[in-house]
Amino acid sequence: MKRLFYYASAFAMAMAMTAGLTSCSDDNGDGSTDESALGEKEQMMKDITTQYVNNVVYPTYSDLATETGELYEMLAEAKDKFKADPTSLTQTEFDAICSKFLQARQSWEESEAFLYGAATVFGIDPHIDTWPLDLDGLVTELSNADKIAMLDNGDEGISYAGNKMGQELLGFHGIEFILFRNGANRTVESLRAYETDEAFTSKGVRVSGREELIYAAAVAGDLRDRCWQLEVSWNENAPSDHITRVVDECELPNTVEGNNYTYGKNMLEATNIGSTYATWRVVMNTILVAGCANIAQEVSGQKIGQAYTGADPNYIESPYSKKSFVDFKDNIISIENSIYGGVEGSRDENKSIMAYLRKYNPTMATSLENALQSSFTALDACINSGVAFVDAPQADYVKTAMDAIAELDSELNKASDWISIN
Known about the structure:
One of its GO terms (cellular component) is cell envelope. This is Imelysin. It is found in: Cell envelope. The protein is 66% helix and 1% strand. By secondary structure, the chain is an all-alpha fold. It has two domains: 5-53 and 258-421, CATH 1.20.1420.20; 63-249, no CATH class. α2 (40-84) runs antiparallel to α3 (91-109). The longest helix is centred in the N-terminal third of the chain and has 45 residues, at 40-84. The two termini are 39 Å apart.
């Protein structure tokens, strides 16, 4: 199961800081911010925040929402075709679903440097990204005709999945099991036969692709809803149909407790009455620690470290698609996007945390940049080894990557500490 204590405590710490701090040079005394009164550093932090929210968080969650919506539609259509005639679903169609899954998965992993906020407060992260998959529980679900009937019931089936099935059966990894095996796309031919995974055969359970696709489509619908919840919770200008689905149909929470702002507005309104962010430095600390350092620590100490050290050999992300190393690299890309001022194509490094450090502490900027590049180099070596993490979790190159990302975590915390007092 994905462990949440580190970033949950980091987010709580950041929120506690906001309650105990008051704005100095950027507060006019009436609860409003006058840009002409902001000091040079505070103005730069404000510009960084605007760039970060609009060009990192918003486009990443928008892509994730679009892709999970498309994934659901593709799986729902495949399910219906397969039920009507198992021979009508082609391998080309199924491969396209697998590609769409990986596209959505990439956007999710590239969002993990901002798990603080809606992803944590509303429990979305564990709901859609818990591993390892509970295969014994999946056997029970898929072999129960009544439960399959519940899942195969449109929006009611989606609701049943999201509310009645445990998080170890939901989200990306349940769908991954249906779509991939041993690092490759499943064959449609295998879906026309009975499930051959040992968890099923050892119990004498006969489950076919019909049941598997019904399950995958319902879980994909729930995944879509929770990713739309992320988008809507951050961006008040999210598509209207997404807002309607989240707010009116699913009745999911989607605003900051206490002020009813979206999480994006709450950050953009820092130092103003209503925002939980009392100073721009608190915003920088949230991005660097509750966001970037948190995921660096998780990748190094948990996603890699649990299996590498032997503490939990089964704690392996994406074992069926064998994309663990790709997941880890996408997590580091989420850090890069966060500190360099935007996702690819929407980046403005002049309005970034790295620009701030280069201006006011170039030595620290160099150390952080070196740590980031070392992490990428080490993960590229893992990917280029041609051996999946699940097949060699204790390889030397794995240790190199784990140590490099741990150093990145350290440098991110140092940068946050320095910004806090300078």
